[in-house]
Amino acid sequence: MAPPSILDYRPISTLVRVEHKVPKAKYPAIDFHGHPQALLNSAEGLASLKASMDSLNIGLMIAAENQSGDRLTRTLSLVNASPLKGRVAVFTGIDLQNVGPGWAERAVSRLETDIRAGAVGVGEVGKQFGQTVRKANGQRLRLDDPELDPIWEAAARLGVPVFIHTADPAEFYKPMDMHNERWLELALFPGRRITEGQVPFDSLMAERDNLFRRHPKTIFIAAHLGWQANDLAKLGKLLDLPNVYTEVGAVLYDIGRQPRAAHDFFVKYQDRILFGKDSFQPEEYPYYWRVFETRDDYFDYYRDYHAFWKLYGIDLPDEVLKKVYYKNALRITKGLPQAGWPK
Ligand SMILES: [Zn+2]
After folding, report:
1. Looking at residue 130, what is its pLDDT?
2. Is residue 9 part of a domain?
3. Which residues have C-beta within 8 Å of that of residue 133, sequence separation ≥ 6?
C-alpha cells in the first residue's frame, strides 16, 4: 500500500483520558486583541456580540482596529447606546504612511483628539510596519525610526498603551521544505509566504526590541507573544524590559505543546501577559480556557494547519488566571471601566 498523504492521514487516538471542556472562562476575561469588525456597526451586530461575550464570559472586548476620527466617535456612540455600554473599548490608530517633515505634529494632534474622544489605547499597529510601510522619502520605515519618537512619547504622556504586532511567524521566512514546521500551512495558504526581498525576521525583532528600549516610559504590548512563544527564554528577555507586555492571541499551539515550561513562564511573568484572541470566532475561545485552566492531556487544537500536534492544559493558579484574564489589562489601560471586576 502507498502511504497516505499528510492531509488524508487522520488517526483516531486510542488514548483514554479525562476531558474537561471549558465553555466559559472561570473569571471575566478582557479580550485585549479584539477584532469584532462589522459587529460594532449596528444594534443587531452588538446584540450578537453581547450574546457571544456573555456565553464565553468575556467581560470586555477591546476593538483593536485603529479607529480614528469620525469612525471612532460613531462606534463609541453606537456602543454607548447599546447593552454593551462599558463592555467594549476602542483603540485608535496611527497613520504610519509618509513619515517625513510635518508628520509627527499631525500624528500627535490626531492621537490627542482621539484619546479625548474616548479611545483608551493605540492599536493594533499592524505587521506592515517594519515590513512594507515606506517613508515620504521612499525608504522603508524602520520600527525604531527616530522620526516616530514624538508619537511614542505622546502615548506615554497621555498614559495610553501601544499594542503592536510585528512580523509573521519565523518559519514563514525560512525555506519551505520538509523541515519547516509551518510547511503544511504555507502549502495550504500560499499568500502567507514571505517572498524574497523581505526584511529578515531577526532584524524585525531587533528593531522592535530597540523601539521598546528607546521609550521606557511608553507601555508596549507585543501581540502574539512576540512570535517567540517557541523560545520562552528569548521572550523572557523581552519581558525583562519593565515597559513591555505581551498577549497570547493565535499562538495557543505553542503554549499548549509545552505545558510545564509554559506554566512556569506564565507564573514567572504573570504581571506581563494579557489575554487576547485576534480573529473573532466565538467557538475558538473555549480552547484557550481549556489550555489555561485545566491539566487535560493530549487534545486537539482548533485548526489542523497551524500545528498538527496536540495541546495540554497548563493549569494556571487562580491568581495568575485573574491577572492574565483582566487584572493586567485594567492596570495598564487606565481608560477601561475599573469597577465591577472580581477582587
Ligand atoms: Zn490583530
Report:
1. 96
2. no
3. 96, 97, 140, 141
How many A from CA of 16 to the centre of ligand 1? 37
**Full strand arrangement of the beta sheet holding 58-63:** 88-90, 58-63, 29-35, 278-279
- Domain assignment present for residue 17? The answer is no
CA 265, distance to chain mean position in Å, is 18
246 lies in which domain range? Answer: 29-332
Tell me, in angstroms, the distance from the centre of ligand 1 to residue 136's CA: 26
pLDDT of residue 127: 95
- Ligand 1 centre from 65 Cα, in Å? 8
Distance 229 CA to ligand 1 centre (A): 17
| Structure confidence at residue 286 (pLDDT) | 98
Residues 6+ apart with CB under 8 A from 268: 236
For residue 220, with 0-12 CB atoms within 10 Å meaning exposed, 13-18 middle and 19 or more buried, which class applies?
buried
CB 49 within 8 A of CB 36: yes
- Number of H helices and E strands in the chain, helices first, is 12, 9
Q: Which residues, given as ranges, of the chain have pLDDT below 70?
A: 196
- Residue 3 in any domain: the answer is no
Q: How far apart are the CA of 280 and the centre of ligand 1, in A?
A: 10
pTM for this entry: 0.97
146 grid coordinates: 527616530
CA of 224 to the centre of ligand 1 (A): 9
**In the prediction, which pLDDT does 206 show?**
98
Which CATH number characterizes residue 263's domain?
3.20.20.140
Say what the pLDDT of residue 6 is. Answer: 86
Q: How far does residue 278's CA lie from ligand 1's centre (Å)?
A: 5
Q: Is residue 4 part of a domain?
A: no
How far is ligand 1, taken at its centre, from the CA of residue 9, in Å? Answer: 32
Look at the chain and report how many structural domains it folds into.
1
